[in-house]
Structure formats: C-alpha cells, structure tokens
Amino acid sequence: MATNKKFAVAGVSTLNGKTKIRFANDVMRIKILAKNGHKDVELIDLPREMTKAEIAQHLIATGFGKGNAAVEAAVAYIAKKNPTAAAAEVSTATAGKAEAVAE
Length: 103
Fold this sequence. Notes:
Blueprint: E1 7-15, E2 18-24, H1 29-35, E3 39-50, H2 52-62, H3 69-81, H4 92-102
Antiparallel strand pairs: 1-2, 1-3
Helix pairs in contact: 2-3, 3-4
C-alpha cells in the first residue's frame, strides 16, 4: 500500500541473500543495518524529501544500481508497489521480471 510518508535517504542492502530498498531520514541508518548483519549497504541522500513512489522514480531516472540485477529488481518492485499518480514508468513486464529475480 502506498504511503505519503517522506524520506530523505534511500538505498539498498542485502540480508540473508535478499536485496531490498531501504528508506530512512538519516544516513546513520547504515550503522543500524550493518549492526544487524546487512551486507552491501548503499544509501544516498535524496535531493529533497520524497515519498516511496517519488524515490522509485528518482532511482530509475538516475540509474541507481545499473548493472546489478538484484538492485534493479528491488527498485522495480518498489515502483510497482508504490505507483505515482502520473503512471509509473515501470512496465508490467519489468515488474514481473523484478518479482522473479527478487525470489
């Protein structure tokens, strides 16, 4: 379900072999993720506070995780789960591929 909560930081981490998008309001979240065993933590400061749908579109537009299938799948999954009012740029085929890679 889409939410209107806004975040200042977004990125990815891998825990138990599953790569997921992470949302936070401070990059200090890296310490908590690392303490809990997350690997490959990569968080970026966003240009402004954004909703999950806006973050998904921003990550796609900036090419975040380009070349890393797990990261691209995680971004596509978030875009599918949090559609924008102005039609999400992620096609159904891409979202289906994301679900297959995420599993």
